Amino acid sequence: MGADRGSVDVCVSEVGTRDGLQNIDTVMPTDAKKRWIAAEAAAGVPEMEVGSFVPARLLPQLADTAELVEFATGLSGLSVAVLAPNLHGVRAALASGAHRVSVPLSVSETHSLANVKKTHAQMFEEIAAMVEAIAEGPPAARPALEVSLSTAFGCTLEGPVPEDRVVAMAERAIELGADEVGLSDTTGYGNPAQVRRLTRRVHAAVGADRLTGIHLHNTRGQGLANVMAALDEGLTTIDSSLGGLGGCPFAPGASGNVVTEDLVFLLESMGLRTGVDIEALLAARDGVQAALPDETLYGFVADAGLPKGFAYAGATVD
Amino acid sequence: MGADRGSVDVCVSEVGTRDGLQNIDTVMPTDAKKRWIAAEAAAGVPEMEVGSFVPARLLPQLADTAELVEFATGLSGLSVAVLAPNLHGVRAALASGAHRVSVPLSVSETHSLANVKKTHAQMFEEIAAMVEAIAEGPPAARPALEVSLSTAFGCTLEGPVPEDRVVAMAERAIELGADEVGLSDTTGYGNPAQVRRLTRRVHAAVGADRLTGIHLHNTRGQGLANVMAALDEGLTTIDSSLGGLGGCPFAPGASGNVVTEDLVFLLESMGLRTGVDIEALLAARDGVQAALPDETLYGFVADAGLPKGFAYAGATVD
Fold it and tell me: What's A18's domain CATH number?
């Protein structure tokens, strides 16, 4: 099978090239990143977050983001996302031609200060300025602006985070002109009951079309259980990372993001079309492992393989 | 907190002492097994499958099952289960005083022949004889007989398994006098949509009170996602294994059962009471690792620890 991005039920959004690479010490050569992006796009992955527009002195691993956006936007049918923590980053994203820009807004103010050195009030000012900067560009080239509510399920610094605050911050971000908000379990604290509650509450507050995606970590092994809750509530974009690369530096030994290979297997086996060929995805994984020989990749499908007689979702109509 | 077995929402049934130990080459000393059982019982685990009544020449790892049942039934409040593949094993289980006997009935006849050297017809004859043997004992001492439908989600030898056959075999087992049937994903092939469908169909066929438990493997990382589907369908007993010990010899490198620690964290964090203290469970895990230094234990909560500010289900009423 091949990618059929027009008819997927769930959009698997690969973030390993950003969330994964920023959490390891190795700086992956730009050519290896391009091979990774090309391999996943060829496997049918519909969206990739290829980097982050942050100062190279802070994250030298991602210094080549502009070049990667240029490369990735040249690949047919791939939605190209980037992260930008501030107005400067959004301007760089606009110049690069990225299709989507994700802005991290930590629900925990302590984490916000640690992560982007800004209070909530300062972040909201920044978001207003980002919306203005994007609006100044030509309409056809305007990227979608998603405000990603980091630490929405709890914070390693503050502990539990009030759900009322998550909802209020989602409302504020939409009022300021963000196209969408996303829920992000930065710390791997989330549980399925919480995913359900928060998704329902944010949907009720800003509309279901303003919250379609979720970013989950597998720090405590709950990633795919949380995905089940997200699907039940109608979310249609799930972030994940090839080999589970990335994650939380506060949880040594625990893996990072939901594993793309295991996620695609979950979705396809349940009859939800992703457009992704799992064998091709596993080949992409092999390429990443070869380029990062010192990094441990996670995931189960890569070890166990596909079940005998496995059928993709909608296989009968292919 | 301590075990409060009378008020759990979900019964976590530890099978590592059976499913785990039969899948590794090391023969764990009986005293170490007793420490394991005692430690999990003290942590609040309400049920444990402590062994299997199979010939010691086939599974020398489990040759001490009778002694372990005697030990475990002496622990306050613990439900003690054993596996028995045939009438001989059920007689041994009766003599041992076990509270529950689980009989594996492979939905794949190829697997049945490989596993217990019996056709379906022969297994049904055996089940009828087991029911008779149990009925002959004093009513107060009668163990519950559960027929566990192995390979219910697919077989490594046959591939996909017809769902009609799973349902028909469940009906037959109940007709013959089994107290309950269980669904068992022996091969780690199952997905949540399948868990939902099969549970609904078997419930419709034999009644919800005749199917309350499920045995899931994590071979492809789908264990807790499948648990979510099982909970949605009202199942209340979930098998799991400390450190994910056990599993399928046909999937090298992949882990085995759902990890008890991660399962308890899932349930408690969702507000479902298990009666289990996670810190005490992690201490039990450390004991098992010390007794099995060459075995790899799986699971995420053991590495990541509990979230800052974590609260058990019903913590406010403790």
Answer: 3.20.20.70
**Which amino acid, residue B11?**
C
Using alpha carbons only, how large is chain B's radius of gyration in Å? 18
Closest CA to B181 of B104, B239, B125: B104
Beta bridge partners of B182: B148, B213
Is the pLDDT reported for residue B202 higher than 80? yes
pLDDT tens, residue by residue, A190-234? 999 999 999 999 999 999 999 999 999 999 999 999 999 999 999
Taking residues B84-94, what's their average pLDDT?
97
Contact: A304, B219; criterion CB under 8 Å: yes
How many helices (H) and strands (E) in chain A?
Answer: 11, 8
Do B142 and B99 meet the contact criterion of CB atoms below 8 Å apart?
no
Residue A51 main-chain phi, psi, to 5 deg: 175, -165
Contact A300 B221 (CB under 8 A): yes
Q: Give the count of domains, chain B.
A: 1
DSSP code for A16:
I
For residues A17 and A21, give the distance between their C-alpha atoms in angstroms, rounded to a whole number.
6
What average pLDDT does the structure give for chain B? 93
Element housing B128 (H / E): helix B120-135
Size of interface A-B (CB pairs under 8 A): 127
- Write the DSSP symbol of residue B307: P
- Degrees to nearest 5, angle at CA B129 with B125 and B131: 115
- Residue of chain A whose Cα is closest to the Cα of B244: A221
Q: Measured in Å, how far apart are chain A's first and last C-alpha atoms?
A: 8
The answer to whether the CB of A102 falls within 8 A of the CB of A148 is yes
Tokens standing for residue A247: 């994650």
Catalytic residue among A248, A258, A297, A302: A248
DSSP 8-state symbol, A208:
G
pLDDT at A316 over 90: no
Best mutation target among A194, A300, A312, A316 (most B Cβ atoms within 10 Å) is A300
Which chain B residues are within 8 Å of A265, Cβ to Cβ?
220-222
- Domain range for B128 is 5-317
Question: pTM surpassing 0.80?
Answer: yes
CA–CA separation, A195 and B32 (whole Å): 40
Q: Which sign does the torsion angle of CA B297, B301, B303, B305 carry?
A: negative
| The one-letter amino acid at A30 | T
HSE, CB side, 13 Å, CA atoms: give it for residue A42: 12
The model's pLDDT over A251-307, given as tens digits with 9 standing for 90+, comes to 445 568 999 999 999 999 999 999 999 999 999 999 999 999 999 899 999 999 999
Distance from C-alpha of B261 to C-alpha of A60, rounded to nearest angstrom:
37
Cβ-contact B195, B160 below 8 angstroms: no
- Chain CA centroid to CA A212, Å: 12
pLDDT tens digits along B121-177: 999 999 999 999 999 988 888 999 999 999 999 999 999 999 999 999 999 999 999
Question: What pLDDT is attached to residue B248?
Answer: 55
Q: Say if strands B11-14 and B100-106 run parallel, antiparallel, or are unpaired.
A: unpaired
Residues of B that are catalytic: 248
